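ARCHIVE CARD
Drawer: 12
Card no.: 0347
Subject: one protein chain, sequence and derived structure
Cross-reference: see card 0346
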Amino acid sequence: MKLKDNTVNMEEVVVVGYGQQKKASIVGSITQTSGKVLERAGGVSSLGAALTGNLPGVVTMTTTGKPGSEDPTIYIRGVSSWNNSNPLILVDGIEREMSSVDINSVESISVLKDASATAVYGVRGANGVILITTKRGNEGKAKIDVGFSSTVKTPSKLPGKMDAYDAYELKNKTLEYEMNSQPSSAWPLVRSQSFIDNYRNQTTQAQKERYPNIDWTKLTFKDYTTSYNANVNVSGGTKFVKYFSAVDYQHEGDLMRVYPTEKGYNTGYTYDRINSRANLDFELTKSTKFMVNLSGSYGRTKSPFTVITENNYYAGAYGLGSDIFYPRYSDGSWGYSVDSGVLQPNPLSSLALSGVQYTTTTRIATDFALNQDLGMLLKGLTAKVTVSLDNKFIESQRGQNDAYADYQQKSIDPVTGNVTVKNTNDATTNFDFYPSNTWTSQGGSMQNWSTYRNLNYQAQLLYGARFGDHNVTAMGNVARQEQATGDGLPSYREDWVFRTTYNYKDKYFVEYNGAYNGSEKFATKYRFGFFSSGAVGWLISEEKFMKSLTFLDQLKLRASYGQIGDDSGDRFLYMDLYNNSTTQVPMTTALGENSSYKFYTQSQIGNANIQWEKVTKKNVGVDFSFFKNLIAGSVDVFNDYRTDIIIKGKDRSVPSYFGATAPSANLGSTKVHGYEIDLRFNKTIGKLHLWANVSMTHSVDKVINRDDPDLTPAYLKKAGYAMNQTKSLLTHGMYNTWDELYGTTAFDSSDGKIPGNFRIVDFNADGVINGTKDQAAYGYPTNPQNTYNETIGADWKGFSVMVQFYGVNNVTRYIENSSFSQTYINTAYLQNYWSKDNTSADTPLPKVTTGNSLSGNSNGNRYQYDGSYIRLKNAEVAYTFTSKAIKSIGLQSLRVYLNGDNLLLWTKAPDDREVNGSSAYPTVKRFNLGVKVTL
């Protein structure tokens, strides 16, 4: 059976490991979606981002909106190992990066989640498997699809920050309270109201430059930018050859605002990518078929040449005070701070004068497969041999290197009006300073350490037969993989895989799978391992006693159990490793004498017993359909128990007097349990088709053993808590008066508390607040425990409309937006601050004076936020023209659509991030207008 480009067949056939099965016979936990569903994802360029909400059990977390770096972190049914929880991703059966595939070339994506579905992948299937199948041609005349879309991108939610006027008002109010304990430090920082008034109602350029009131977020980021996509694919074929070929071009524009200079180059962040693909199927004889897949991609990322991390832009755009300096003065000088303690540079000059470099990533993938029908030997027997070779090359640092740019910088003291110029004279000539233009062109260099090669070859036997009411299938596959990166030693895997299925009268199903896997990561004793699983199913709706239930279309019960391995740990952990000293060892200090010998030093103690991590997976599920497919869906309950998780030597509880870093060992264990609910609704009324998909995934993980020290209190151990459990000092309200503050538990250092500070809980009740010993579990882990999706749509004649809402909860984010982090930085965020008239506030007064020494532990859980959110993930309105007028000009159809991605957001977090950290490039909203023509 082959996948065809229509919804009905997509529902009947499901892509599974090393083959396909009828959906009715599936007894494992497998979810599938089509390329057509992903194409409505609102103009996203990342295939991973398009998966969000469309596959129950799949959790995606977006970290950045930077062009070319928008691939999300993906988990299947939660996190179960601290070494690696990423799923295995296969494109046309070969392990490849998801970013190597363009959305328009995808036929279907299947997600394998339980043991029966993933066991055939052995040591690579422990975290789940994502199977991406690309489109193929069908016999018939050539069909040409041409598409173009243009996208407007705008920043999503950004942190709110006070302007200079409001920040000074808050600072004065804070200093009023600090005056009691630190008058000598606080008083010089107080500013009069007449001074503060200079930051409002400014009328002259001189006033704006002396009293800057800058919205750094607005100056750093544009209001919008554009992206666009163009794609063409041709499919068709004859009896001898069927073909699908496609070319896709993607451009991602930059939200960073780049100010003009006289340098002669244009920097910033952009991404351009060309994907091409040709899938060919040759029917050499009636029993022999030859398949060729040729694909490639060329991606070019533009970025500043000087190494400027996203964190620097975050500090500049969000961390700089509105009054710190004017961005660029009227005489052309760039603003800077004369205070050496201001770590954040001027983000505008840093970007505009940083040079520009282009990084290109070239991927080439080739698959060759020969499929032979051996029916002349045994009816139903086929053989398949596949060879694939992938290569990836990366070139960087091609462009204009302006690392030593020297330019004029200036600062004006708002109190005195004194002007400070950073460069007064040229360092070489001692003449008046003049900005240099000394950038150099560089031709680029290959990142040899990133060059990647992946060679796979496999042979497969397939058998399927029906004997009356008995249906039997069997599959055997042997595969070998060789991977190499840079000049490193190649790594090898070898897999011997089988799958057997049996069903009786298409009602009772049994499946057994196994894999004998080999990995060179372990010593000879543990180099090979056998992992297997079994599953059973009962299509109870086919029983005679159920036929009276006329409302019941289908009801199937299924269960699976099995064990999967994982070899994702580091290589050579079983070996003792040594470093060769490149210098001679010093012998005497006074005489400066060195030994004439060089020495080898042991850098790693090997553990010959290091072996696979193992996951025991249990799954019970039910599939159902009622009222002629009006309501359909599935419910799954799962439980994963992972043992022998590798704990690296530096993380083990081995005392320092051991004298070296302990060897890594298989000591860890975790549990993950949860459930998935997937509901689908379909109703046709005349020419109106209404549909909806609703799903929820609940996944909770727990560390069972992490080799915590025995004498460590239970609340400080990692065992007993979620893998990424948030831990923090806990708070219990605030001190509203000095009377409440007196006699409270002291910090172990810097105990300068004042009213308006958090009351920190002395969790271990030892009479002292300590930042390490008093930390306890707070909130939830950093990965969401619950995800929700609801998609609603309607089709009427040529019109179609859909909206998709996606949300998560039971997740905690750490976002440190600290007001007045330094005495001289007037950065204040829009928050509900405490005051004597607002004692119910949720944010304490910030600390200003350095003399008012207050432990950083006083922040408690201030920067821990409820990371729950609901977002309007996607929405689309479209119309497809298929009238005679369209066909009279040679078109089969014309589809015009308007859709969007990440359109609305409801959250308590201060910005739109889905992971901890300080990634600067904002996530984006997309508004996408496109057209698709079929010839």
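Annotation on reverse: Residues 587 and 593 are 6 Å apart (CA to CA). Residues 1-11 have pLDDT under 50 and may be disordered.
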